[in-house]
Structures are given as structure tokens and as C-alpha cells.
């Protein structure tokens, strides 16, 4: 099958799915994004790039950054990290604080907010400039020096920080938080405010399809086994409370963000990133999910 | 690598892991099983069989039966089934009744007890003899007419039915239970009391590695896509509250039972079943998990 | 103040509060009760009776029966009963099964459904005819031989028994339920289906205002201290999830039922019963609450 | 009965109950208090004072301060306050954050920590110097100008603030917190760090036995009805998760603190304060509970 043609077909079909979700509106900087947009990009292990639609338009990557920060933390802490955060899928969103309390401050996995806060805390403990280090790493991974953090988004998130602050303080009360809450929140929101496009994200995550080695920089970010493990975690926990449905429909490790982006991995073949700002009730891109399911069915990409 | 040699090596190493868990003891029929036992069997798509240890000794398959009953229910109900049961991993065991109440009687997935009860209920609605039908199906899948249900185990489970009865009644109060609670409990406990060995289980589940077609009977139990979907559900929810850890360590779809068995699938290649009665705190076979991790590492079986 | 005049004034004012609630509709037998009705009766320790409105019209006493069954259980079991049920107010209704699970099958107090089921279970353990015994006791307390159980209501409750059956089974799984679930449910629903009027209820509970001695029968149902303790429990837990608000507004021990009745106690002075079928969101009679607050304010009845 | 003799008898009996609990140890300043101490004081509406044991020794009043701050908040906000905090007893301590999340940031009552934080927040909104104002009020109520705040205790509490900070941030995320979290925490911990003795506390709370009028200062802190309402809240929610048991055993409105103090009210007669530092599992003074139960039985003080 012609991959470019497939992406163009999917892009052409996307418009008929507009209007089924809502753009994230908990901060003004996200609420102002135009809803009817779609981009998709595939970056193969051979270095080929295929894209369609607004694949060059940057958006707020939000929770997709949790896959970057977890990579950095595994790189630095190795297996020690798993003393502080679990590997199990969480139950409903409703349970977030409940579970954190029941499990005495150990978040269930590194992709729920509490878990990503612990990951950010672990980076703050090792790095004097955790935001700068992240930016440099992501630029290196994506091979693009112009990637930046949208300060307006980061500041706006900080102004609405209270629920995350509650979780960080609760973990601190259980002894599972090393740094000042405010410093970690600042770093965490900066990570979420990274502004990237589909092409850059597909390229930046290509190490996940390549046994941990970044084709752009040649850097071995993770060992082969760590890469398999990270992909396993993405599959079981990467899409908020819809990870099971994503595995069922798409069958690939992936990570979504409320900016409307979703990146996914076909180990040994390629990485893909879609973007469409309208979200469903679980905070995942409606059209993005549809596009990845189409792609998976067309190319029989399910790992199962 | 010589597969038979590998299984023999794993079998030889198993003994050094005895004593780290406890045999299930909530009913006498299970509590009396000798702890220091180990069996393993692989059944390839080419029809080759490799086994080591007590691979021919039958044990109580318990929750592994949930993969059989779900297959039968998907076969009969198709996508309709998902109106009554979710596809998402559950949180902690502690939450079972909490979540069931919070989600108004819809179990999170078909492998937690509440979900398997709904699946059994759906079979009771379509089949006049749901236990007989299951037995016939499993015999056909395994190619072994001598497989039976251990009535002593089934009766003993029924005598300790109260927690499952609580869940069934709660679902009935929410309108998500069609038959008399007692009839469904009887069927459910009969399924759990199927007595099979590693070879029979590896053979019976080979359709999961073969796009839904049973090599023994030639029957197409599920479509290719349904098979991928079932494998995806097994990976995200098949090992109780340790599904994330299993994906991380082993990287294969699988289903465990408190009888000490675990079956796992390598799509396109083979199915494997291990058995060792000692369980860890999550109800999974301690030595079985170790054996599957060894196998996965030795043959690089992780799907990720 | 002229008590009769006060009751007549309250009765006259009741009509202006009609229409703010809804008649219980989870079973047909209750749903068919006409909403715009009001009755009130006071029975003093001197034996004087004051009443107004439909104080002679019988209604389904429902959960008010929990105060009768608890009296019988304390009479028979004494302090032993508190090994099986707590004395603390519960949190939200939502939590019922959660709390029961978290506290390992011990209901928080004898007035939530789970607690009343344990109380009924304890009576079934001691009495060969627990329904007959209750009927005889209540007739004696009220001094009215014609009181009966409405079989249609009891049967209808039994047909909708599943949530209560879930709780009973859950308690049985924790070892806190002695008899067959079905037998206890039958008794429990029979108690709830007692049909009485305001005058009969005010008279039947007069022992609670009189240090445990029934003025009608001369029987000492409880010791003085047990009576104080039961009144304390009624105050902290008698009105479902609105006990705090009732104490705040009315300031008297009381017990409500979804039939629209509320009985309350002024220790050393009198008992009062109101009836008005429309319920608020907590399952308490809207007009009944208003009437008791008016009465409490007019006569300065708050115990505090 | 000779009241002084009774208090002396109780004081003499207290020693035999030492050793059954543990002094609060979550902050060093409290952990260093000697456990085997007991004091009791009664202040009657006639102005008579009876005391025994270490009734003049000051201790950290901790949560008893919540009755002071609630009085001040009702005085200033009236019924408006109840838009922000409920009047219902809470379930288990375990549920604190759960309930706060489930009920969207509205604490169940003003005596759990979350509720007291909202009360403190409401005072911070109205008062430019909320700590100074509290100190002046309490001095006036007790008729003792020398009452102070123990800065060491307040600072130590602040250092261990994280669980309270989590709750305050969670409420802020729900829009139920007006001021900066840190400012309110400082005020809240200062209130808890008030250092007073049994005599001072009995005197300071005498307005609760006297329809809201302080006999010392002549000030009407609350209306008669507000006083009844506050007493009702103390009875249903004043003793953490043991309010039901306290009502059952003692039968009086009361408020305890982890410093080992308990104050209680007999409306129309007197206020009493006991102090003994050893706490039971619910955080209430073991010997204090025993003493109040003895007192209640000896004088038949139960309101019920």
C-alpha cells in the first residue's frame, strides 16, 4: 500500500468527524485553539517521513511530555524509580486522590498526573536546570533546535495548579516527594507546555521503535529492554482511562495529550503522531483516535 | 535455540524458586495441592509440542476459564457484549465493589470476577445447558475428550460464594444481570472448576496465536480482528492487579488462575502454559511468572 | 401554649409546603400513595394525646421499623450486639458498600440498611418466628391489636431486593451474617412493611421518652441507660445522611422512613410522629421535617 | 452529690487507666508531653468553679480550637457559612480526601480538618489579623489575658503541613478557598497551638451552656438558637470518628483535641474540661473519655 496515499485519505476523511468533541478549555491558552484541524506524520526507521494535513503546525504537547520525562528519569534512575511509582493501570479518573491515599502516596503509574509529578520530582533532584535539560533533550531527539516552551501556557497551567498541588502535597505527606512542591510544579508545567508539531514528535519518539537508539542523534536513550518496558507501560497506561479501549481498537503503545496530540509506536517499523484538538470525555483526541484506528486496520498494525 | 532444552533448563531452575508463595487456601479442594510442582508446555502454530516437568498433570484452571467463556460470549454476542462490560483495566482489588457501584453495575473488564459473572450470565441467557456447552467447546479446542469439571471444587466454591453473590446481586440491582443469581453462580463455578493440564491448555488456546482459527478442530472461534482484540484485553487486564507488571516483564497477552496456571500467547508463533501452585500476593503463580519472564527474555518474545 | 392549637396551626400550614418533594417510587405499592397528605400526633408521658390532620391514617412505616427491631435486639442481645454493628454515623449514601467493604462487613450503625439487616439477622438467630414476634411486640407497644404487615408491600420489596441482597451476601462473606440471606431479607422486608398511623407510632415509641418503660403495657423494654443510648444513636444516625441537619434544625432523636413518616422523642416529655409522603433527596419527608422544626422552635424542644 | 468530691474521686481513679493510649507524636512539641497526667474542671452557670488534678496546667488545645473558630465564623458570617461547609458527620478518617473529592470540595462538617480549614479561610477573608483576633477573643471568653499561642508548636505543625496543604489545595481547585493556602495554614496552625488549661477552657466555653452569652465578658457570642445549633454539631461531629460512641457513652456535646483535652457542655448547667495526654486510636484522650463517662453516669448528664 502507498503510505502517503493512505495518510492523505485519512486526512481527507478527518473532516467528517469534526464536531464530536470539545477543545480543552480549563486554561485560556488551550481554549483558543481552532477545533477543526488535523495533522498526521509517520517517521520510519529507515528515516522516511510521510505526513498529511497540518503536520507542521505546532501545538501544546501536554501529557505527551510524560513519555519524554519518564525516558529521562529511567535514563538517570534506572530501576530505582519503581520504588516511587507503580506500573499498573489506574482505575477511573475519579479515583486519582483516593488511590493515592489508599496506596500511601505511591502513584499507580508514571502517566497519571501524580505519577508524572513524581517523575518530575526525581528529575528535579538530579538536575540543577530540569527545564533546560528537558528542552535540550527534546531538541536533540527531534533534531530541531527551534523547539520551545510556550511560557503563556506554562504560566496559565501554574495559575490553575491547585489539583496538582493537592496531589504533590499528599505525596509529600507520605514521604514520596523530595523537592519543594512549587519548584516541581513549575518544571512539570513547563514540560507540558512544550510546543511541537506532528513531524517533530514522530521523529523525537523514533527511539521507541528502534530499541532505544535515536536515529537522529545516534544516542542510545534507553536499553533495548528498557524500551520494551516503556512501550509496555505506554500500552497499559498511556491513554488515561481509555488505555484498554486503545489497545482493543488500535493495538499499539501510545501517549495522548489534552492539546489533541497522540503519538504511537510500531516497534521495529515506525512512529506516528496525529493531532486534532477536539477531545472526547476521556481527554483524548476524537479524530486522532479515529485516524489511528483507520491506520491500524489498513496496515494491520495491531501488535496482537 | 533448542526450545526443548530451554524448557528443560527453566524446569530445572524452577525448584530454586519454590517456597516464595502460598497455595490458594480459600477452599479445601485447592488448599490440599502440593506446592512444589512445576510444568510447562508450548504448542506452536506448526503443531509442534514442547513440554517439561509436570505438563501432563491436571490442575484447577480457575480464572483461566474466563478466557474460554469470553471467547464463547464474543462468538455469540459480538460487539453487543460491550454494552454490559467495559474494556478497561481495573484499579486495585480493594476497589472491586466500589467501582461496580460507582460505574452503576458495569464491570470494568471481563476478567475481574464481576465481569466474568456478566459474561457467564450472557451465556446462560443464550444456552440451555451452559456448563455442558462449555465442556464440549473446551474439549474440542484442546482436542481431548477426557477433560472434566471437578465437582468437588465447584461445590466448594459454591459454598464460599458470598462475595461473588454480593457482586451479582449488586449488578442485578443496576439491571445488568439477566438470570437468577444462583443459576449463573453454578455455571461460573463450574467453568472455574475445569481440570486441565499445561499441554491441554496450550493446545486449547492456540487459536489466539492463529488469528482465531483452532488448529485442532479447524473451527474459526473468532475473527482475526476479534482475536487481536481479545489478546489486547488479555494484555491490559489478564493478570488481576498485576497486568502492568506482566506486560513490563513478559510482554505477552496472558491469563492466570489461582490454581497456579498461567497461559500466554505469542501471536503468530505459539501459546505457552505454565503451572506452579504457589501464588504471590496478587494471586498469580510466583514460579510461573518467573518462568515466563525467563522464556520471554531468552527468546525475545516481548511484543514491544 | 395550647398544644392542640399549635398542632392545628402546623397542620394548616403544611399544605403550603406540598409539591417540594417526591413520593417514593422504587416499588409500586409506595408510588401509588397520594402526595398531598399530612398528619401529626403527640403522645405525652401523662398519657395525653394530641393530633391533627390524617393522624389516624395508616402508612408504610419502612425504616422507622429499624428503631423497633433495634429495641428488640438490644433487649435480647444487650451489649453483645455491638460486636456486629457500629455506633458511628455513616458518610454519604454513596459509600454504603464501600464502607462495608473497608470495615470488613461491620456496618457503621444499626440504622443504615446493612446495619438493620444485621439486627434482623440477630433476631432470626434467637426467634423461631421473628416476624410474628415483631408484630406482637409492636401491637403491645402501641396498645393496638389491629396493626398488621402489608404483604403487598413486603412482597414488592422482596422483588426489588437485590441491593440489600448484595449487602447481606457481602457481610456473609466477611462472616458477619448467621442465617440464610433469604430468610433474613423476608423478615426485614416484613418489618419495613408494618402499616401504622401517627397516633400508633407516637404511642408505641413512648418508652423512649420514659426511660424505657412502656406506659401502655407497663413493660420495661429497655433499661434507662439503654434508652439514653438508643436515643443518642437516633440523634447521631436516625435520619439517613441528614442526621446532622436534623440535629441542627430540630435537635431531637428521631427516625424517618421512606413512607413519609418521622418519629421523634423529647426525653421526659413526649413522643411525636408526623407523616407526609413527599420526600426530599435524602429520603426524608419534606413537610415532616418542616413540621418538626416548627414544633421544636415553638416549644423550644432542642435538647441542646 | 458533692461535686468537688466527685471530681476528686474521678481524679483519684484516673491513674488506674494510664498506659492504655499513646501521646500524640506526629510533631516533637507534642511528643515530649509526659503521659501520666490528668486534670478536670467544671464551670457552672452560677460562676462556681470545681477542679481537680492538673487543672491549671496549660496544654496544646489543638482541635478544641475548632469550636472557637467556628463560633467566630458563625458570629461573622451567619448562615452564609453553610454554603461552604456541611453539617453532617463524616465517615471514616480514611475517607477524608475521598469525600472532599466526591462532594466537590465541600467538607462534610466544620470539625474535620478540611472543614476547619474552610472556617479559618472564611475568617482570613474578613479579618486583617486573624490570629490576633482569635487570641483576643479567647482571652475575653476565658477572662484570662495571659493565654498565648505556643509558637514552637505552631511552627512544628507548619513543617508537617502537607496533608492539610493537600486538602486546602483540593478545595481551592473546586473554588471553595478564598485566600492563599499558606496564609490560612499559618492561621489554622496558630489556632491549634493555643495553650490553655482545663479551668480556662471550661470558662471560655461557658457561653455554650448559657444560650450564647459569656458570663465572664457579658458578650453575646451567639444567639440562643445558634448556640443550640453549635451544640448539635458538636454532638454529631465533635469527636472525630467517635462522635457516635461519645453520644452513646457520655451523651453531651463535646470537642476533643490531640493534645489530650476534651471539653463538653451540659446546656443550662455547666461546661467541663478534662485533660489527659494519652490518646486512643481515634485521637481522643483515653482517660478523658473515661472521666466524662463517669461524670455523666454519676450525675445522669446524658441529654437523652
TrEMBL record, chains A, B, C, D:
Domain of life (superkingdom): Bacteria
Keyword terms of this UniProt record: Acetylation, Hydrolase
Alphabetized Pfam families for the sequence: Glutaminase
Binding site for substrate: 63, 113, 157, 164, 188, 240, 258
Keyword Heme: no
SUPFAM superfamilies the record matches: beta-lactamase/transpeptidase-like (SSF56601)
InterPro entries reported in the protein's UniProt record: Beta-lactam/transpept-like, Glutaminase
GO molecular function: glutaminase activity
Catalytic activity, reaction form: L-glutamine + H2O = L-glutamate + NH4(+)
EC number: 3.5.1.2
Record NCBIfam families: Gln_ase, PRK00971.1-1, PRK00971.1-2
Summary of subunit composition and partner proteins: Homotetramer.
Family note: Belongs to the glutaminase family.
Protein name (Swiss-Prot/TrEMBL): Glutaminase
Taxonomic source organism: Gallaecimonas pentaromativorans
Lineage: Bacteria, Pseudomonadati, Pseudomonadota, Gammaproteobacteria, Enterobacterales
